[in-house]
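new request in #modeling-help
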Amino acid sequence: MTTSTFVAGRGFLYIFDARAKLFTVLLLCVMVFLPIRQTGLWTLVAASFLSAWYATDFKQALQPIKTILFVLVIMILFTPLTYRDGEVLVRLGQFPLATKEALVNLNILVARFLGITYICTLYMWTTPMADINLALRWYGLSYHAALVLTLAFRFVPYIADSFRMIQDSHALRNATVSDGERTGRHRLADLMPTVTAALVVALKSIPHLAMSLEHRGLGRETKRTSYRRLVAKGGLFTHLLLSVMIPTVFWLVFNTL
Amino acid sequence: MKTAVDIADLSFTYRRYGGQAQPDPVLRAVTLSLPEGSKTLVLGAPDSGKSTLSKILCSLVPRHFDGDLGGAIRIDGTDISTCTPWELMTRVTLVAQNPQEQLLMTTCADEVAFPLESLGIERTALVDTVHNALQRWGLYSMAQVNPQEISGGERKRLLLAVTEAIDAPIWIMDEPFDDLDEQWRQLLLSRILGKKGTVVVFASRYLDEFRGNFDTYCHLFGGNIVRKSEEEIVVEFDRECELQFAPMQEEPAELPNHELHCTNLSIVHPRRSVSSDQPFSLSVPEFNIASGEVVALVGPNGAGKSTLSRVLCGLDPLVEGSITIDGSAIAGKGLQTRVGYLFQNPDYGIFLPTVRDELGWSLRQIRRLGTEEREQMVRSCARLFHLDLDDNPTMMGYGARKQLQAAVYYLLDRPFVIIDELDSGVTYAAAFEIVSLLRKNGAAIVIITHDRSFARNIAQRQYTITNGVVSPSEVGV
């Protein structure tokens, strides 16, 4: 009932310790919101994208953009309308459609959004969920809290997987010879049955998930042991040092670019 | 001898979402006492309450599925109404009919390890147990693979590996032989027979493997359980389920003349969770099927039966090769309009509040019919498939949902239909009826199955997948 966000691949990120990597993710996410140069921000986005490409492949690396594309389009369309001050670049009658300040802010907003998306996605792609759980526990989170958090990351993609299966099932059920004539409105209407069936599958799986967790011993007072162990090749200290150095180097580069 | 499981006057009625009790109880007055170390087979038709009883025995129902429970169950002398599932886990382990219900973790190794971690087993022993269990069930090489990326049979084996790893004295197994191929069925049987503890196997079909291998035979029927000799139970069960292979309906008088032909297909798909230089691949030198034919597609777990089916109905792309229908090359959407695929899980296609809506909806999508004509078709189809038009599909039993799924494709009238594991969850008689009805329309049918007797009795030809290659083989072998 759960699925993994982990994507097998290559590179340093796969051997970078999950605890240190989590710390880097946090520092980079904080850094994205600090007042830094736009070129620096886009460098971070580009570096994250290239890391994703190198770790997996180009098609997979594009996946996060596809996922947030709708939100990006909404941001691009509506953010400029919320800024009226500054040098007006495009005007409709008396109404300023885009100002220089609006475009600068939009640029920063999009870069931040993409940056955070790629940084977090990279962490999920390159770290097995069980290791994320162990990393969270290492930082002091209780087992139950870590489990709930990681289960959410597994259960939601599972529903997404079910959604794709349901979509396939409906595609076969509804395929007609005149499919080429189907308009966007028809395609939108086709979503309704798929979403309903996905909802039914999701709702039905909730009691099963709870049932299985309890049947597998969640709730026992015995101290849990762990099959997995986090092993940092070269020592945890080195990895933690790297986890601070990577954002620091970025920070320095950002502010000189 | 000590009593391991003692069920006294057990009754259970599910509640609806609104809270009121459903009109018919699933279990009425089940009474059964099983001694320690006994091996029991409980035969019951689909939807007779086997899964419910198996979950009640593990204290999971009504805890997670609302209902009214009466009577008492004692496991090793302890009344389980006072126990939580996690307290019972050291005494009873359940293997659910649908493995998807029980899988929690994102790698096979973690799945086996999770309950052992809950038990606080020391790490060295834990690692050994996990590896041994995976090894025994042929999953060691898949230790880091995501359970969502393995086949249905492999998932069932994973659950069996978990069950062996926990090593509780009582195993409750709901249709454990379903989805397993010959080799793993034999292993499961030997593990059941070799177990010192108590095993209760629930099944909706009497398989060759069961003959003479259990010491207690029961029949769950009408909410009650009866215990008799093996012969008597089999005859009684046979009578209830019309288990004998029904003769296929006569050939349709006028067969349409369609042929689907595949040449030199090559199918490849990688697994996301593990890096591998050799992704899963399947080669199909030659595959063909013509109107009115029933062809079985068999092969071991994870061989690629569902993968091939997805390609044949245009859901997944080909790497190379060609698919033709009536001599014309066809792909993607074109295939989707000609080849139907009844997924193993019927819930993927069900979304409307009544059977009438479900049947009418697809008909409305594909054919321009008058309301009256459509209603007439829907009514006659429901009659053929024994469906009540006012039933709510999501609340119907698994077997009835499978019937509904088939009824939808009956109305869609696709010239080619692939049916994935039809024999799991429905009786042989019902499965035969479904195939007969689809064939009556002239459809060519591909049946995916692990049951050789079923394949032998239903198919005229067979293809087997061995080592990634699909080739013709003798039916039922």
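bot summary: Residues 184 and 307 of chain B are 21 Å apart (CA to CA).
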